[in-house]
Amino acid sequence: xxxxxxxxxxxxxxxxxxxxxxxxxxxxxxxxxxxxxxxxxxxxxxxxxxxxxxxxxxxxxxxxxxxxxxxxxxxxxxxxxxxxxxxxxxxxxxxxxxxxxxxxxxxxxxxxxxxxxxxxxxxxxxxxxxxxxxxxxxxxxxxxxxxxxxxxxxxxxxxxxxxxxxxxxxxxxxxxxxxxxxxxxx
Length: 186
Prior knowledge:
Layout: H1 2-9, E1 37-39, H2 46-49, E2 60-63, E3 80-83, H3 89-100, E4 105-106, H4 126-136, H5 141-148, H6 152-165, H7 171-180
Parallel strand pairs: 1-2, 2-3, 3-4
């Protein structure tokens, strides 16, 4: 699998594999110097512990086929992402670039807790998370209102509330915070 990952990453000339470690749990391997760590370890294993409490830990990309309880990942001090093992070279490279930029990435069905809970744990209500997701898609207030079956005034209120709660000056900053904290995914 590591050889396959290296071949996929080689498809992007801007990415370079700098190390290939079999076991991240060894003490000497905790001095990771890569910009992004890619692992097939479960997030509950040592790979997630690399970033817990460390301010300079690199982003971690987990390659998983099963849904992951993201509550533990939300405590990471670094960006993280989850992609399926059958991700294309373009998807894998895009995920690495997004993680390097400090964003949280992953497929929505992999970012759940026990298949029922969502990745949302934060200051926003469930409705505000829905609105934030539509903001990320570039929807205007009128489009948000139509999509959610609410009035345009209510949509505007939700957008204002989101910006206030996330301390964002505009919609773009609100979306960035939502992505960074894992409340929404693209």
